[in-house]
Amino acid sequence: MKTHLPRMGKFTKRILILTTTLVLCIIQLSKYQDSDVISQVLSLEYVNSVDDWPYGIKFARYSTEKDSPVDWKWLKILDKLLIPGCNIVDIGANDGDTALILAVAAKGGTVVAFEMGTAIDMLRVNKRLNAHLKIDIHHYAVSNTTGTVHYENNKKNIFGDSSGTEEITSNTSSQYEVSSVRLYPFLLEYYGKEFVDNICMVKIDTEGHDAVILSDMDPRFRPRVLWVEWFLRFMFYDWDNLVLEDEDECTPGSKSLFDIPQSLGYQVFNPYFPLRKAPGCQTKHYITDLLLLKNEFVKTIGNKLDNEPEIHLKWERLGI
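Given the sequence above, the corresponding structure tokens read:
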């Protein structure tokens, strides 16, 4: 038996044609707008290039910045650990390289990006280039007190070279005062309890101030995942003279990154697969970042992830 589809009326045909035309126009307009935004960004004195990243990301680089590979391991790990649609906090967002990746990992959630330094201009540029990602920017320092702190862009690497990823622009200077906020009170006042309760991760990269921020975490605020920097200077017994700490010893700074999370109810892991607890704070175990997982999360994570070959948390859960 042949089945005849109903014939399309003239009015329906016109509606379909108009809808299709409108969609095509919107797509074309979007391309023109994207191209116009990129052109405007490239005209900025401190922008050297705009790179194409996966997930439709556009990333602007400084004119003095050397190309460096993007570490996409974050997405691979966070895809297993985060709840789709949850919110993420990025403290020390710099030019947005991690905030953009975290916005993808949030899968529709919002990234709250804090940056106190001169990179704030480039962070705003990269947000503008990626309007499809939800990123809120706050030009504040995060600490254990509210008030005003002095910012000075005088970072040097171990070779004594002052060049880095931050560049002074016409809107910033090498020294200025910036307001400081305490994390939980600020988030609660600015966003409200429902938003804060949906925060599943906090990333902290604040050049050695991470322990101070961790120690000020409110008891009511315990995201399941914390990602913190293990500051390079914490490897050194004497930073000014580049004297390394003994490989079997922990500097006070390194020790704090293990002791404080434990007091908050977190366990310290290496941030790569298969997930394994970090051996300790000794200099010989140094890695650039530490992954902190909430105790309650570690207890229950096996129900979901033990059978996945890259995880194997069965023997890493609390009390085993």
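The chain is about 35% helix and 20% strand. Try to locate this feature in the token string yourself.
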